[in-house]
């Protein structure tokens, strides 16, 4: 299991490194033990956080309410909780090139 994926009783937690204001939103790969994502949204008024939640929900086929930003609200390093999802599925989906 990759270091950025942590299994919890109710789901999984991702350790994410975001790069806002990228040309497009996509998974870049692993960086420093975290899952690196580029987000097209700017880090203004929570836009990047909203884009992150939306991207993860859509990519994993989850309703938005199952994706929660746990830590790192104003930082590039964030922790995101995904409720009711299988770790193997998250790893498989996130490891695919976007």
TrEMBL record:
What's the short name of a Pfam family annotated to this entry? DUF167
Q: Which domain of life is it from?
A: Bacteria
InterPro entries to which the protein is assigned, alphabetical: DUF167, YggU-like_sf
GO CC, alphabetical: cytoplasm
Instruction: Report the Gene3D superfamilies cross-referenced here.
Output: YggU-like
* Family per similarity comment: Belongs to the UPF0235 family.
Name listed for the protein in its UniProt record: UPF0235 protein STAUR_4962
> Which source organism?
Stigmatella aurantiaca (strain DW4/3-1)
């Amino acid at each position: 299991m990759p270091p950025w994926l942590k299994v919890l009783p109710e789901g999984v937690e991702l350790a994410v490194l975001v790069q806002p204001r990228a040309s497009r939103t996509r998974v870049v790969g692993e960086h420093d033990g975290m899952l690196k994502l580029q987000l097209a949204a700017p880090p203004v008024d929570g836009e990047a956080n909203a884009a992150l939640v939306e991207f993860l929900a859509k990519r994993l086929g989850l309703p938005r309410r199952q994706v929660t930003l746990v830590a790192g609200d104003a930082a590039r390093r964030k922790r995101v909780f995904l409720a009711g999802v299988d770790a193997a599925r998250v790893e498989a989906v996130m490891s695919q090139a976007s």
